[in-house]
Amino acid sequence: MFTHVRRDQFPATPFNCENAKIETYHCKDCNFQTELTLLFKQHFENHLTENQNPGYKIQNYSCEKCGFRTHFLMKWCQHTEICLAKVKNLRVMSCSKNFKKPIIKWHHCDHCPFKSKHKHSLGIHKISKHLKDDEISWYKCEKCPYKSKQSSNLKKHTNAQHLDEIKWHECRKCPFKAKENCNLKQHIITHHLDERDIMWYECKECSYKAKLKDRLNRHMKSYHVDEKDIKWHECKKCPYKAKLKSNLDKHVTARHADIKDITWYECKKCPYKAKLGRDLKRHVNLRHLDGENSKWYECKECSYKHKLKWYLKRHEKQKHRI
Length: 322
Prior knowledge:
Organism: Zophobas morio
Family: Belongs to the hunchback C2H2-type zinc-finger protein family.
Strand order of the largest sheet: 1-2
InterPro entries: Znf_C2H2_sf (IPR036236), Znf_C2H2_type (IPR013087)
Oligomer: single chain
Distance between the termini: 37 Å
Subcellular location: Nucleus
Protein name: Protein hunchback
Helix content: 25-40%
Shape: globular
């Protein structure tokens, strides 16, 4: 969470989240260092509790539901966000007002039943579905004839087809690298953060928990939404339908896209090419990475491991009844 400051306090060169390097935090009292703010705060908190003196009072924040305590307000907010769904009439600090479910202001399309919580999403919908080609301000690739109605699609195209010009964000602990800084941070949380230091997002309906909030949201939509409340995303060319729009997009690309309209993901080491980036990653991991650099999915119950997550899930069901 960044603090908003006056405009004259900003540096001459604007901060760019995608291009900025991950800042390393160093402890002034010992040799500890980390790239994650939360870990650094937890480490600093340990110093405070070890070296307290009677003249320095540290504010404590506690959860009324489970007794969780911390010196840091942000950490307390992250924790209570998870607990709020389970607790009624929870009070924030000394405030006597209860949390209320926010009223959603829907943005409706003038041409069809589509609606969205975000005005920006409604704008994208109108451009994609209701504008004629000659009315659209196209986003054009500077390197080839490709053009798109959305800047996000142009960015995906550039990342897929013009890789030589990408500034990669590399992980310091493994060969992983990402085109965007936010993806590198997600990788670090998913693969290199100790489980004791993770702020888990837990499902209220089952034992599922996730390291990332968007994965919990995907789980809820996939498994716990009542059938009558599901907003299905239907394919216009076949009976296929999906709970997640991203799955419908992948289906359309894989099954119905014209060859000339497909942005192919091409392997640099062999003639293989794929319609979906995930398929290319799976191919490279299976065919071109040695054991040391491969991404392995390991069983928590035994020594079994595999390069494909699907095989690990099948193993867990057959051998461990998980």
